[in-house]
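Anyone able to model this chain together with magnesium ion?
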Amino acid sequence: MTPEPAPHSQTVASRAKIVAEDVEVFYGEKRAINRVSLTINENEVTALIGPSGCGKSTFLRCLNRMNETIPDCRVTGSVLLDGEDIHTALDAVQLRARIGMVFQKPNPFPKSIYDNVAFGPRIHGLVEHPDDVDEVVYRSLKRAGLYEEVKDRLQEPGTGLSGGQQQRLCIARAIAVDPEVILMDEPCSALDPIATARIEELIEELRDEYSIVIVTHSMQQAARVSQRTAFFHLGDVIEVGCTEDIFTSPREKLTQGYITGRFG
Ligand SMILES: Nc1ncnc2c1ncn2[C@@H]1O[C@H](COP(=O)(O)OP(=O)(O)O)[C@@H](O)[C@H]1O
Ligand SMILES: [Mg+2]
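re: yes, here you go
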């Protein structure tokens, strides 16, 4: 049964963008996610935290059907994007244009800086005329805070940039197809503190236009960048709420234990 999307309430600022219900994920016989229900709001950063192996990346991949690319991985339950079932109402390619992804290790294509950003708009047929391609590439690089640093070497390989620049290039590549949601799986864990700070500022800027879900092993990062936090433990969501509440007055013992560093 597909529930209607919740009616927009005038009194509630945040609107549900993605509603995941009873999502379970199996790798072969092994269950990695146990009936997780979680809502991602529009124009918010939602942080997924929890100890290594608790299922954060697996859950994140449910949101744009990336688990389908993993052999033996099976997903059940429903995920609605603006009220539409992502498994039945949308095809995976269209879905991934609407829900972009940025990975832990910056992974630019072995192409020029320019072509990394132009790739998505070209394959999705969003642009034809070379001037339009230029426009999208420049706009996306500016939005990702990278344009000034690379404008004189757009034809050089993306892989020649520093780690932090490569990650901003991957963000530019993701936003070039005009997505609605950006998923980020530990996007700063390969970066130094300065590059990390740049990405965190960028996340804050991008929030006014996109819904963002970020997996992070850093509680400080979750506290800095997110408005909502979900704490995962052994494949369950133990607690979800306003980030400040999760870090200052968690309701659950397991959450308390994790945020005070007793485990994880
Ligand atoms: N491709 C895979 N094949 C089999 N098991 C996997 C695979 N990816 C993750 N798992 C298992 O699923 C569980 C959750 O993993 P993961 O989502 O990567 O956790 P996290 O991102 O929180 O560290 C772990 O037990 C992990 O070993
Ligand atoms: Mg992970």
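The CA atoms of residues 204 and 225 lie 6 Å apart.
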